């Protein structure tokens, strides 16, 4: 909200010399956040001039200009810029004549847009200044030419300061108003708060108006079946003014105040409505009475009904929209924007003024539904004083009579919204108990009375507080505590650090997640964090993360946001790899080509998402427990993942050693490091994934209750994938379901007793079909040899394919290590255990010993 200081001073005493910075500081003291200071962007010698002569001259370009002599200072005195009192000025406008008083910008003046005025030669003359228009002074979009002061209601002598006469010497302070304090969207409300802060005398502008009763105009509020238990309108005051001249210019003082307040001047009836709204906080609407058919009816929109609003757009109305209608149909979207069919224009003579009280929730929903925020809806949805409507309507009538030349008609309506607030029982001790302060009881009472509450003693330190009509937000004891703190002073709330309660520290899951991040970064990876929003192409390219895909990759189902930040990326991610690729692209494009990135974050499983935007509960009422449970149940699962991406060189080129690129083995090692950090052991076997190289992809598994469960993938991206995402060379990557790894990992690592007896090692070479994964053959050998209780370790040491074997065969060599805890093994015992492994591999895969 922007508040011109001259306007503020009409309702509260501002000490002489008060600066905008001081006003800001005083308003901050009562809970408003300062935003900025607003001034007119015009300075220098800008004065009143009297046109002494005007000689039209037609030039070769077809344009006719006026060569004028203008008095810019009293006769015989120096002008504001130190020059002569009469100046020659070239002017292209024609809406003035000899004897008119105009605004002259002399050399040295600076106009909005950093337009600097200087004497310059043009059209054969030296123009020693410029006669200004409203547009050039940023006072409006007047297309009729320069400002003739008499038409603006200003009578001043040549040389007078035009900025002061036009109200352009004024300054406005801008504050941020929180949603619960809608009363501060008016000069009236801010002036009252300034008085609370400084103790200055407040003069309520609403009390300075004496409403005159009116009747005879038919107004009906037809909301017999209120929507969601809320009545759309509770008050509707109308007044009629006849015989106005709508073409009269809005006076300069009003234009300047509207401009400083951030509202553009349009026409006299509209400007008066905006001026009263900014002053008293009550939105108004002016109808051309001659365009209204019959009386007005406040009702809900009919199915399929449409309305052309003042912005020229045709809007399809919703059955929950509250509309103003006459005999012809809807003529306004209540509390949001009026209709085109009954708007005032230059031909308007009779004006119907409306000051209504609408339900805040109904107006807020309509404004959002039609994406049509307005100054009126901003106030209605935050709450408007229901008792100020009569004063606001009367003030608008007075201004239309004074400035528009109209006469008051007795026609109107007097349906004033009822105000019957419930008293809030309030314990005085609650204030210090909640705030930790030492406020006295009399200070608390004084603070509540200052904001307008009526207090009744209920005994034993209990008050019954009734809020004023402009503070509908005060409904709970906590609200009154907040007001007491705000008025008495936040500076008296002590800064005391609370004593931390005893706790057990981080949970197991939190400790393991942190350990995984610490270990992976210590291993050499750089942790990054990416946005969770992805495009359809990224979804289909990287899938849902760790799941292998056989054959053609089907489109990935994902959660689509109703209102995404980026229309190109409207989905929530199913994999961390898309974000890592984007981070790598950004770094590579900036010359950082050697990368080892890791990310720990959540992905979003759409399986449980059932609610759409149409089933979201309405505002203004608490959903039932069943609805809340349904909402909780609809929140998607968000499992934690870990993923890494490797681009460029793992080892940089150096003297005596060539560069080595990252490859699938590095990705697999990194995945094992992350799993090991949470005490989980990965099982690796040949895998497949839509984004990975078909021959360089490992499926990562863990053993759960005797069976293997997939938890991730590691390897190299397919060359076409790397090319599609514009990453050079080989790109290695891994992704793990970290949450599942933490669930299945041993809570306490098993610590084996070291045997003091020597190990017996034996090699084993088996011939199997080439299609059989080596890891599965190793699993079979381990399973068979483990039965002896002597196997300590087994690894693959060779994979041979060539001479001496069939085209569809390969020879796998394993190194087996056996050890007993209580004795030195014999060669026969080790061989017997090895042959048990051979038997298991032979039974499962038809493996045979190689000669």
UniProtKB/TrEMBL annotation:
tRNA-binding recorded as keyword: yes
Gene Ontology MF annotations: ligase activity
Keywords on record: Aminoacyl-tRNA synthetase, ATP-binding, Cytoplasm, Ligase, Magnesium, Metal-binding, Nucleotide-binding, Protein biosynthesis, RNA-binding, tRNA-binding
Subcellular compartments: Cytoplasm
Co-factor remark: Binds 2 magnesium ions per tetramer.
Cofactor: Mg(2+)
Location of the B5 domain: 419-495
Family recorded in the similarity comment: Belongs to the phenylalanyl-tRNA synthetase beta subunit family. Type 1 subfamily.
Superkingdom assignment: Bacteria
Gene this protein is translated from: pheT
PANTHER family in the cross-refs: PHENYLALANINE--TRNA LIGASE BETA SUBUNIT (PTHR10947:SF0), PHENYLALANYL-TRNA SYNTHETASE BETA CHAIN AND LEUCINE-RICH REPEAT-CONTAINING PROTEIN 47 (PTHR10947)
TRNA-binding domain span: 40-163
Residues annotated as domain FDX-ACB: 755-850
Assembly and interaction partners: Tetramer of two alpha and two beta subunits.
Stated name of the protein: Phenylalanine--tRNA ligase beta subunit
List of residues binding Mg(2+): 473, 479, 482-483
EC number of this enzyme: 6.1.1.20
One Pfam family recorded for the sequence: B5
Catalytic reaction annotation: tRNA(Phe) + L-phenylalanine + ATP = L-phenylalanyl-tRNA(Phe) + AMP + diphosphate + H(+)
């Amino acid at each position: 909200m922007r508040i011109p200081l001259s306007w503020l001073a009409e309702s509260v005493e501002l000490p002489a010399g008060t600066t905008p910075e001081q006003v800001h500081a005083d308003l901050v003291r009562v809970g408003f956040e300062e935003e900025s200071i607003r001034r007119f962007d015009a300075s220098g010698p800008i004065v009143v001039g009297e046109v002494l002569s005007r000689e039209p001259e037609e030039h070769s370009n077809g344009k006719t200009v006026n060569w004028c002599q203008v008095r810019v200072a009293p006769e015989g005195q120096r002008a504001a810029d130190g020059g002569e009192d009469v100046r020659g000025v070239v002017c292209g406008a024609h809406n003035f004549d000899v004897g008119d008083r105009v605004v002259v910008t002399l050399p040295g003046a600076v106009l909005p847009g950093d337009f600097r005025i200087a004497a310059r030669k043009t059209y054969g003359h030296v123009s020693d200044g410029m006669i200004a228009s409203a547009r050039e002074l940023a006072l409006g979009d007047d297309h009729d030419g320069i400002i003739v002061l008499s038409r603006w209601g200003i009578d001043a002598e040549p040389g007078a300061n035009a900025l002061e006469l036009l109200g352009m010497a004024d300054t406005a302070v801008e504050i941020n108003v929180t949603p619960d304090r809608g009363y501060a969207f008016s000069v009236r409300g801010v002036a009252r708060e300034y008085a609370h802060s400084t103790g200055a005398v407040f003069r309520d502008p609403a009390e300075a108006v004496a409403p005159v009763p009116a009747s005879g105009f038919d107004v009906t509020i037809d909301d017999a079946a209120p929507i969601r238990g809320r009545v759309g309108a509770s008050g509707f005051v109308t007044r009629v003014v006849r015989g106005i001249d709508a073409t009269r210019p809005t006076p300069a003082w009003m234009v300047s105040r509207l401009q400083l307040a951030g509202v553009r001047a349009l026409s006299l009836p509209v400007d008066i409505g905006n001026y009263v709204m900014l002053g008293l906080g009550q939105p108004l609407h002016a109808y051309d009475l001659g365009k209204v058919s019959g009386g007005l009816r406040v009702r809900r929109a009919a199915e399929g009904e449409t309305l052309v609003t003042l912005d020229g757009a045709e809007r399809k109305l919703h059955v929950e929209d509250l509309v103003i209608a006459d005999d012809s149909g809807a003529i306004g979207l209540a509390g949001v924007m009026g209709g085109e069919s009954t708007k005032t224009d230059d031909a308007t003579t009779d004006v119907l003024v409306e000051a209504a009280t609408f339900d805040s929730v109904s107006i807020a929903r309509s404004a959002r539904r039609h994406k049509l925020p307005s100054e009126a809806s901003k106030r209605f949805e935050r709450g408007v004083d229901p008792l100020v409507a009569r004063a606001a309507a009367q003030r608008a009538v007075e201004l239309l009579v004074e400035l528009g030349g109209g006469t008051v008609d007795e026609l109107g309506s007097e349906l004033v919204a009822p105000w019957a607030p419930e008293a809030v029982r309030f314990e005085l001790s609650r204030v210090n108990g909640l705030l930790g302060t030492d406020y006295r009881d009399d200070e608390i009472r004084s603070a509540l009375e200052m904001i307008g509450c009526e207090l009744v003693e209920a005994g034993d330190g209990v008050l019954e507080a009734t809020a004023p009509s402009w503070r509908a937000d005060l409904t709970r004891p906590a609200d009154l505590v907040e007001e007491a703190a705000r008025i008495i002073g936040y500076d008296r709330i002590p800064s005391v650090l609370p004593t931390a309660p005893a706790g057990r520290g981080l949970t197991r899951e939190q400790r393991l997640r942190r350990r995984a991040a610490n270990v992976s970064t210590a291993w050499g990876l750089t942790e990054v964090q990416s946005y969770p929003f992805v495009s359809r192409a990224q979804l289909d390219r990287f899938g849902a993360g760790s799941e292998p895909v056989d054959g053609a990759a089907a489109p990935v189902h994902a959660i689509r946001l109703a209102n995404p930040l980026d229309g190109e990326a409207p989905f929530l991610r199913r994999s961390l790899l898309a974000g890592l690729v984007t981070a790598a692209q950004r770094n590579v494009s900036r010359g950082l080509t050697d990368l080892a990135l890791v990310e720990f974050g959540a992905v979003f499983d759409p399986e449980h998402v059932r609610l759409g935007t149409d089933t979201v509960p309405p505002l203004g009422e608490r959903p039932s427990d069943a609805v809340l449970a349904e909402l909780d149940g609809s929140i998607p699962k968000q499992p934690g993942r870990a993923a890494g991406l490797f681009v460029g060189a793992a080892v940089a080129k150096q003297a005596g050693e060539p560069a080595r690129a990252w490859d699938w083995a590095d990705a697999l090692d990194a995945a094992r490091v992350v799993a090991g950090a949470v005490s989980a052991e990965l099982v690796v076997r040949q895998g497949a994934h839509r984004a990975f190289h078909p021959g360089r992809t490992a499926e990562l598994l863990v053993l759960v209750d005797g069976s293997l469960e997939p938890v991730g993938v590691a390897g190299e991206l397919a060359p076409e994938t790397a090319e599609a995402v514009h990453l050079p060379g080989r790109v290695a990557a891994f992704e793990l379901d970290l949450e599942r790894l933490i669930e299945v990992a041993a809570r306490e690592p098993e610590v084996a007793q070291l045997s003091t007896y020597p190990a017996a090692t034996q090699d084993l070479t088996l011939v199997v079909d080439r299609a059989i994964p080596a890891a599965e053959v190793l699993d079979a050998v381990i399973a068979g040899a483990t039965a002896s209780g002597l196997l300590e370790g087994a690894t693959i040491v060779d994979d041979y394919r060539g001479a001496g074997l069939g085209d569809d065969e390969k020879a796998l060599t394993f190194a087996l290590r056996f050890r007993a805890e209580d004795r030195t093994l014999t060669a026969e015992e080790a061989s017997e255990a090895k042959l048990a492994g051979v038997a298991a591999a032979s039974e499962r895969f038809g493996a045979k010993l190689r000669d």
